[in-house]
Amino acid sequence: MNTNAKILDGKALSQKIKGQLKTEAAAFEKKMGRKVGLAVVLAGDDAASAVYVNNKIVGCGEVGIRSFELKFDGSVTEKELIKAIEKLNKDSDVDGILVQLPLPNHIDANKVLGCISFKKDADGFLAENAGNLMLGNPALSACTPCGVMELIKEAGIGLSGKNAVVIGRSNIVGKPVALMLLEQNATVTICHSKTQDLAHYTKNADVIVASVGKKHLLNGDMIKDGAVVIDVGINRVDGKLYGDVDFDSCLDKAAFITPVPGGVGPMTIAMLLKNTIKAANLYALK
Q1: Whole-structure pTM over 0.85, yes or no?
Q2: 121-156 confidence digits (pLDDT tens)
Q3: Which of 22, 79, 181, 213 is the most buried (most CB within 10 A)?
Q4: Residue 72 Cα distances to 63, 97, 104, 194, angstroms
Q5: 252 a catalytic residue
Q6: What is the C-alpha to C-alpha distance for residues 153 and 160, in angstroms, rounded to an integer?
Q7: Active site residue 184
Q8: Which residues pair with 279 in a beta bridge?
Q9: 286 carries an active-site annotation
């Protein structure tokens, strides 16, 4: 039994990456005569969304990105949001655009998100960027999967030839992280809510990425000794945060494991900032 599992500390790694991004942002400013710019659009009065937006704005300040915050009340129309995004698309001071979800119920989120220029798609959700990821072309890729891959890279974990299981098939995490693992020559299996006998797959996995939003879906009996376990799940139960992984039961078997909170979560914002600087360097008007 392994008793020396290494905790993959997303909080520490995110700070390290922010330090690198600060240098990149300063280089861009010196070259272009302006700061990299990120616009964050918030509609409605969802308390959690306000917190997330504030954390992203704080992150911008830490690395030297100029933030533009557009706030709308819950009665904002779809047409008004689309008009605001189209204006941001044309603004040469804005390199990345993020629309904080959820939007008010009367607004079609997909329609609004679809109006963002793929060149300013800081979240990496749009079809053009998802397609470029699949094709192996340069892309602004989904932030959370990028954070997962950075954690794996930082730990020096080789993926070539390894069996990787992704639990979850969302467009935001499951599918893109599967493509990223495949790009690193892992043999990838995607499991989901219709998968029969999940443990059959996870027990044979060298790397597991759990992202379904179900408290303690994966436990120590379902993994092999020496597995790498990445927990993307965030579940609020009775005011407490839990991951998709039963951390305690996996700790003695895993070689590497992420905690919740403090694992993948902090990496998502770091990757958002990285995407914004990447967009600036790829597409900014000279």
Answers
A1: yes
A2: 999 999 999 999 999 998 999 999 999 999 999 999
A3: 181
A4: 26, 15, 10, 39
A5: no
A6: 12
A7: no
A8: none
A9: no
